[in-house]
Amino acid sequence: MPDTPPLPDSAPAILPRHGAWSVLTPDGEILSMQAPDIRRELPQWPVPMVIHAPAIARRLDLPPPPRPCPWLDLLELFAFTQPAQATPPTARGLGMALGLEADRLEAPEADLLPDLAFEMLGRIARLRNTPEGGIRAALAWRMRKAGWAWGPSVCAALGLKDDGPLPAGLIQPNEALKVWTRLPKWEETAPRPAPAAHPVSGEEAQAHLREIIGEGAEHRPAQEAFSHVAARAFTPRATQGDPHMVLAEAGTGTGKTLGYVAPANIWARRNGGAVWISTYTRHLQRQIESELARLYPDPAVRRSHVVVRKGRENYLCLLNMEESVNIALSRGQAGDATLIGLALVALWAAHTQDGDLFGGDLPGWFADLFGRGLLTSIADRRGECIHGACPHYQQCMVEHSIRRARTADLVIANHALVMSQAAWHALDGTGASNEDNTPTRYIMDEGHHIADAADSAFALELSGLEAAELRRWLLGAEGARSRARGLRRRLEDLLANIPRIETPLDTALMAARALPAPGWSARLAALDPVHRAARVPAQGEEPVLSNPSEALLHELRQQVLARTQGSPEGGPRRSDSECDLYPMPESLHAAAQALERALRRLAEPLRTLVTRLDEALETEADWLDTPMRERIAAAIRSIRRRALSRVDGWCAMLGSMQANEPPTDGQTPQYIDYIRMDRREGQNPGERDVGLYRHWLDPTIPFASVLAAPAHGVLVTSATLRDESGEDNTNDSAERAWDAAEARSGAIHLPSPAIRASFPSPFDYARQSRAFIITDVAHDDPAALAGAYRTLFMASGGGALGLFTAISRLREVYRRIVNPLEEAGLPLFAQHVDPMDNATLVDIMRSERNACLLGTDAMRDGVDVPGEALRLVAFERVPWPRPDILHRERRIHLSGGAPGRFDDRIARLRLRQAFGRLIRSRQDRGVFVLMDRRTPSRLLSAFPEGVAVRRLGLSAAAREITAFLQAQDISADQLS
């Protein structure tokens, strides 16, 4: 084996540890230092070795390190050594990923960092004289030229001389960056026949479940019973439009994932079809994928049977990657962080399972090291794919995923994707041009989120950003530095062969200028009365609204400002404001009419363009080869989805405004129309997006129509399908709970009643958990709230998840407690503060026993942290529904005349989800704390049976938390 390459001379190492910092000095001495001392000494030291340089700089209160990072960041070296392997960005996380002994990771000091570096450099050295080593050598050579701090050490590990040329015969560095030339090509296969309809019995499902979990596994009667009921979703349906819908509530710990996988796997193999498993959160997608290793232990076999599907915008686009690489190489500059990042992406792309940039096997901390802009620039940006015209079409990772899904047994997707796919199948009629075969069997995990997902999937948004994005998609970049391709450029290969499409294309592009032009947001802001009154514009300086869409946006903006500014429910409390559409001023009515006419002038040539492309598939059949036919079909699909469906929806919404009057009092509306203004990412201060929004009053109606009714079987499952109010234990109360569950899942819109089943959690919550309501913390005092979180987190010794209903309060609490917790040896991380994805933050918590994490809704649902790493969940206040216009209308029309009960149900279900994060196995022990003294007793039925919720002051609760978590064994009757 080659000798282990040297590290840079006298490289110090810095590691946060026990509230101070563990420092390996240039002299080889291990010291405990405070942040001010490190800041003072750092300029005199050689380049330090760290883990996650941007986070270290933030914790030392230093400016962000420049790019490329001058420090030796072990995460960058890990990304080079172990491409497509995620790891928590901590010393313990890296050590576990590299297989170091567990005792070395219990209390790591700074001297562990050189050992981690030597281990990784040794692995790199072992690749020398292999084909993989040749590619890595070429990339490392290029990265060293670009200023990569690890470049000299990695090049030495691969046998490259300092600043010398590459050895003859190795791939050239520029070619090594062109990963698309080395990726496998997908091959077309015959269309998969429609699946058969052989049923799966409950007994078969139970037997297969026992095979999956294996001999000696824990016997879970509820899991087997759940699997038996889940099999009923795979019974052949008797009537079109009348699927078998099963509502199965399975408490935490039931083992529902493998419970429904067992019948799904039998059905898929027996009938030659795919079962789509849909989730709401990425956390659960990852969890399901990992659980399926029990079904298919061999990764290669699992890859052929199981596919994870996400929206196109999550995947690497090889054409965008090529353009980014060419731009970086044309600069040819040393110190080019973009080129270093692209080299690591090229290495990752050659090893990734599916090419998912966000939430896949590219580590979540990568964007923090090299900038999120790098990843968004190489992602498959929505609507820009040119499909068969792309030179990398047959290497395309999205196309690989689509084709694997066509032959897979199990497809793991998310609610948004499956609903949009179902909607497009319904729109296309035959579904012949769609990316995926129409599934006949769905499993909707996290089923309590169906209404939320449908609300987003089937809503309409006519906003400045959405309309401007459509203009950019049609016209391309207009004078700005952008690689955005317009529709003409995407169709230019078709224009040469089908000249009759040029006229409608040009007409559509001319009509697209009715959409917001670049600079629209600043022009609207400058026309606000407060800005106009502040100064007198010079002659010719007055902003001009250049098209009818900007005129409508201006009218919408003025209505929001007029009806919300300064009001208790308006803009001053939040960065967003909303108001009712009606009553509508005449100027807004006129602007809506003008824009509707302009949009219809855009829709007409687009429809003609689609018609002529469709005709070409038939009339030009004699010369069209397969790639060209695919190219035309993709163009038709893209125009329909990206432009026509949106414009048609906008026209329908604007057309309904022509009556200029609200719905009649007492009438139940089908839609909720309102105006909203908010600040979006990338907008300057003072500029806010504004738009007209349309939501279904009951979003489960389109869900049932486009997804559930065409299917043959749908299993909806969750730990929180029903809300048991605790008001009484009568049959009527239980029936109301199930009726509400059917309403939230869309089952009430199907011909036959749903099959209902409920399975309790197997945990002994009375012994394993405690719950407290804090009675002496002022909910509106940030200092008091921060002090409460600090006290509770210290009482538990970390391992704590703090949940918030508002991002602003989360950030304020984080700012106040991060330093005291760090000094106590409890590292604190926070969603919306740390620039890492949620999955990485959860991975950190899993790997660090004493870590604390602050989060919002996404951390409340679907997070799985078993064991001692999570032993306290603290919620800042009752999670009431947000009192916006959507909720106002739904509680009026969908509450059955009991709006208060409607609000309570939502709050209880959210509390149940939050409590569900706490106990994930029979060995777990944990405490749930709600810091809202105003919590009504009627909400306490949200907690599992056996959990006695006690109201205590903060100090008394802290003492009990410490005593409970430190006790080795405590029975329920010891509770006092």
Largest sheet: 7 strands, parallel
Give the proportion of residues in helices.
Answer: 40-55%
| CATH level 1 class label of the largest domain | Alpha Beta
Number of continuous helical runs = 39
Strand order of the largest sheet: 8-9-7-10-15-6-16
Keywords: ATP-binding, Helicase, Hydrolase, Nucleotide-binding
Domain Helicase ATP-binding: 209-494
Protein name: ATP-dependent DNA helicase
GO molecular function: ATP binding; DNA helicase activity; hydrolase activity, acting on acid anhydrides, in phosphorus-containing anhydrides; nucleic acid binding
Please describe the structure with a list of short key phrases separated by commas or semicolons.
single chain, 976 residues, alpha/beta, 4 domains, seven-stranded parallel beta sheet, 23 strands, 45% helix, 11% strand, disordered C terminus
Task: Write structural notes for this entry.
This protein has 976 residues and is of the alpha/beta class. The protein folds into 4 domains: 1-177, no CATH class; 180-187 and 272-445, no CATH class; 459-479 and 486-529 and 546-564 and 575-699, no CATH class; 765-974, Rossmann fold, CATH 3.40.50.300. 45% of the residues lie in helices and 11% in strands. It contains 39 helices and 23 strands. The strands form 5 sheets. A 7-stranded parallel β-sheet has the order 8-9-7-10-15-6-16, with helices on both faces. The longest helix has 34 residues, at 586-619. The model is unreliable at 430-434, 567-573 and 969-976 (pLDDT under 50). It comes from Komagataeibacter xylinus. InterPro entries: ATP-dep_Helicase_C (IPR006555), DinG/Rad3-like (IPR045028), Helic_SF1/SF2_ATP-bd_DinG/Rad3 (IPR014013), P-loop_NTPase (IPR027417). Belongs to the helicase family. DinG subfamily. GO terms for molecular function: ATP binding; DNA helicase activity; hydrolase activity, acting on acid anhydrides, in phosphorus-containing anhydrides; nucleic acid binding.
